[in-house]
Amino acid sequence: MRVAMIGTGYVGLVSGACFADFGHDVVCVDKDAGKIAALKRGEIPIYEPGLDDLVKINVAAGRLSFTTSLPASVAEADAVFIAVGTPSRRGDGHADLSFVHAAAREIAAAIGKFTVVVTKSTVPVGTGDAVERILQETRPGIDAPVVSNPEFLREGAAIRDFKHPDRIVIGTGDERAREVMTQLYRPLYLNRAPLMFTDRRTAELIKYAANAFLATKITFINEIADLAEKVGADVQDIARGIGLDNRIGSKFLHAGPGYGGSCFPKDTLALLKTGQDHDTPMRIVEAVQTVNDTRKRAMARKVQNALGGDVRGKTVAVLGLTFKPNTDDMREAPSIPIIRALQDMGATVRVYDPAGMEQAKTEICDVAYCRDAYDCAQGAAALVIVTEWEQFRALDFARLKAVMAQPVLIDLRNIYRAADVAKHGFVYESVGRPRG
């Protein structure tokens, strides 16, 4: 089938490359001429394991191409995916749908035959109705049913998630659109891909409900971690103890400095605004957002306490800047408020991240960007693990101790065991566990 993917951001580029790998003819469209030129040269604008090879293979096979020309790409497409950004709108926190609406107008002007228009971007309930209205206003009588097909891709594991999904949610009441979407995802049938058909508004709300629930699990275990520290319990054993209950499950029960990224923060906020618009307050989600925002900066106080209550004039080394490993995404990363708080307390900060330092330079100022973990630790009174990159899971503690001013490790991801670190003469602080 012929697919046009509008937007070459994280969702659009991964989805387009995977559809091409299924055997479909995919063209990815973006207004950013520089980005399109880079993609044509084989340069991938985001860090996602395996994506560069996937793009290269499918470009070479002639199934994947890139262009700035939307009309030519849409005219012969069987399905057009809208995969543009929907950031939080300044001032009120609602999802900014201006890019979605603009894409809909351009698509309407370019469609030449029956075409399914699919919203892949994360959008509030009712956006599909608005897109449908824009299509009809721009081209009265246009034959282009609108489908909601939210994405559930985890950064760092997006290709696997696309090809081995837990579910594929498709919101449509149009039988012809249903058939097109079935054909698009047919290559997944060998994996027994669970296609879930529902109405469009339900599909839109499923995405927000899923992200809000996962954010709630993270925030819940973080609050339990705080209590565990006070009473001398171990949050990792607690998480395992409750996670073995099939009704709860073990995923997203890892205590840490709070969630970040491109989805959870903006999607929980958008859900709150949607609830307010419909006079249905989302009290649990509101509490989740407040607790998470507060938690990130509070992690700096954990560092301060580990250094005797004062970091002024001391050097703190931070390992991991991105919001999670295997990505270069710095959006809403916990490292940002943690570092700013440490700086406000008077600390000098050194940082290292395997993939995110270039992105971080637009968010974090007045820090020393280092070449590796050991360079980062030079002269530091404390080493703080903020992101659980694999590169930080087997640190050479003898080497660290030799270059640090004080042997203090604050492990905000609970990578290590206190007894193992203590053997090397380190003071060890973690999250929700007894002090080492």
Could you explain how this protein is built, in words?
This protein is of the alpha/beta class and 436 residues long. The chain has 3 domains: 197 residues, Rossmann fold; 82 residues, N-(1-d-carboxylethyl)-l-norvaline Dehydrogenase, domain 2, CATH 1.10.1040; 135 residues, NAD(P)-binding Rossmann-like Domain (Rossmann fold), CATH 3.40.50. Helices cover 42% and strands 13% of the residues. The protein is built from 17 helices and 14 strands. It has a 6-stranded parallel sheet, with helices on both faces. The protein has a 6-stranded parallel sheet with strand order 11-10-9-12-13-14. Helix 9 packs across helix 11 and helix 9 runs parallel beside helix 12.
**Using DSSP, what is the number of strands?**
14
Count of helix runs: 17
Q: Specify the biggest β-sheet.
A: 6 strands, parallel
Let me know the CATH homologous superfamily of the largest domain. Answer: NAD(P)-binding Rossmann-like Domain
What attributes characterize this protein structure?
alpha/beta, 17 helices, Rossmann fold, 6-stranded parallel β-sheet, 42% helix, 436 residues, 13% strand, N-(1-d-carboxylethyl)-l-norvaline Dehydrogenase, domain 2, single chain, 3 domains
Report a brief summary of the structure.
With 436 residues, the protein is an alpha/beta fold. It is built from 17 helices and 14 strands. The strands form 3 sheets. It has a 6-stranded parallel sheet, sandwiched between helices.
Topology:
Blueprint: E1 2-6, H1 10-21, E2 25-29, H2 33-40, H3 51-60, E3 64-67, H4 70-74, E4 79-82, H5 98-110, E5 116-119, H6 127-138, E6 146-148, H7 158-163, E7 168-171, H8 175-184, E8 195-198, H9 200-231, H10 235-243, H11 264-277, H12 283-306, E9 315-319, H13 335-344, E10 348-352, H14 357-360, E11 368-369, H15 373-376, E12 382-385, H16 397-403, E13 408-411, H17 418-422, E14 427-429
Parallel strand pairs: 1-2, 1-4, 2-3, 4-5, 5-6, 7-8, 9-10, 9-12, 10-11, 12-13, 13-14
